[in-house]
Amino acid sequence: MRFLAGIALLMFLSACASSAPPRGAHQSRSKRIANLQRAAALPWRDDGQCVVREASQPWSVLVERCYQSLDHDRVEFHDTTGRCTVASADAATVGLGFCVLAAPEIAVGAVIVLGVVVVAVAIKEELDAYEFRHHYPEEAGAVRGTRRAPRAAVTERKPNLEPEPAGQGWRPPVPPVPVDRTRHASCEPIPVKHRGGDDAHNKCADRIPPNRYPGMDVLVGGKHFDALQVGVRVLWEIKTDQFDTYSGFLRDQVIEDQVAEFREDREIARNCGYGFVAGVSSAAHKKALLDLAPDLEPHVVVTECKR
C-alpha cells in the first residue's frame, strides 16, 4: 500500500515538474501555481506558510528555504538515480533529502510520503484564490479595485531612461509617472504588500533602487516585482541568496532557474513600457548569471545586500 502511494505521489510530482508553462506574464504565474501544486503533495509542519511565501521563486530556491519546514518524520528520500550519491560532496553539504527533492526531475520512488497527505491550509487557500481569479477575472479585478481595459487598447512604450548602477548617482524623487488610461489595467503599477517575512530582503529592495513604494512590492503585468525605482520607469527584482555559500549542485540549479526568471521579468517589464534590473548580492552571483546568459549584462547589478 505504501509503495503504491509513493508511486502515485511521484507521478504527480513528475507531471508538475515536466509540464511546459506558457509564455510571458502567464508563465510567471504558472510557475508559482506549479510550485504550489507540487508542494501540495508533501506534508508541512508550518501549514505551508513558507511555501506560499517562496512560491514565486525557482523550485530549487523554494526547497532550500523551506526544507526545514517539511515534516521529515513522514518523508523518505531515496537516491534512485545515483545523482546525489555521485555528487557526494554536494550531498553532504545540503543533505541527501534536499538534493533529491531539489532535483529538476524526480524519479519514481525517490520521495515517499508516509500516510495520507492533507493539503496544507496556506497552500490550499492560495490555490483556491488562484482558481477564483482564473474562472472569475472580472470579479477578481473588482476586488482589487482595478478596471480592465480592452486588449486592443494596449499601447507599447520603451523605457525612456536607463538605470544607474546600484548606489550611484540616483535621481531625486519625483512624482509618480501618470498612468495612461488606455493602457491595459495589468500594466498599471499597483503597490501590494510584501509576500514574505524576509526583512533583510525587503530592506534591500527599499534602499537600493530606491523603491518608490517603501515597504511594498509592485504588481505589473501580473508579476510581483520587488520595487519600482524612484524617478524612472524601471522595475527591480532583488535576490539576497547566500550564493557564495551554496554547493556546486545548488549553484547550477539556482542560476538556471534565475536566468529563465529574469528573462521572463524583462519581457513583462518591456511589454508594459518599463526597464528591468535584477540586483544580486555578490560579484560571483552576477558572474555566474552572465556566464550562462550574456544577454542579461545590462540588467544585472551587484547590491552587496546581506541576509
From TrEMBL:
<keyword id="KW-0732">Signal</keyword>
<feature type="region of interest" description="Disordered">
    <location>
        <begin position="142"/>
        <end position="173"/>
    </location>
</feature>
<dbReference type="Pfam" id="PF19829">
    <property type="entry name" value="DUF6310"/>
</dbReference>
<feature type="domain" description="DUF6310">
    <location>
        <begin position="180"/>
        <end position="305"/>
    </location>
</feature>
<feature type="compositionally biased region" description="Basic and acidic residues">
    <location>
        <begin position="195"/>
        <end position="206"/>
    </location>
</feature>
<dbReference type="InterPro" id="IPR046277">
    <property type="entry name" value="DUF6310"/>
</dbReference>
<feature type="signal peptide">
    <location>
        <begin position="1"/>
        <end position="19"/>
    </location>
</feature>
<feature type="region of interest" description="Disordered">
    <location>
        <begin position="188"/>
        <end position="208"/>
    </location>
</feature>
<protein>
    <recommendedName>
        <fullName>DUF6310 domain-containing protein</fullName>
    </recommendedName>
</protein>
